[in-house]
Design brief:
single chain, alpha+beta, YaeB-like fold, 5-stranded mixed beta sheet
């Protein structure tokens, strides 16, 4: 995956939408929208998706959840930005 630039302005709840899958996993994984916004606004790392160039992966540790790294995968080429999936990524803990 290739590094991507961070958003140029603060992203708010009105700037994003969620796919049905993303809505489902937010509930199943007990992930707050505030955490999603936090990652989008201040990602520790952003990467291009290897299979879909429209998708960006934003990653950041969440202090309120034991510094587990939250990965937010979203389409930055549509407005509002479309959140595709969200999960705590065990493979990058301690690496970012």
């Amino acid at each position: 995956m290739k590094d991507r630039k961070k958003p140029s302005h603060k992203i708010s709840a009105s700037d994003i939408s969620f796919t049905l899958h993303a809505k489902k996993v937010l509930v199943e994984r007990d992930i707050s929208i505030d955490w999603v916004l936090s990652v989008l606004n201040a990602p520790r790392k952003t990467l291009s998706d290897l299979e879909d160039s429209d998708l960006t992966h934003a990653l950041c540790p969440i202090a309120e959840n034991g510094n587990r790294v939250l990965r937010v995968v979203y389409n930055d080429h549509v407005r509002p930005r479309r959140i595709v999936t969200v999960y705590f990524d065990r493979t990058v803990k301690g690496k970012i």
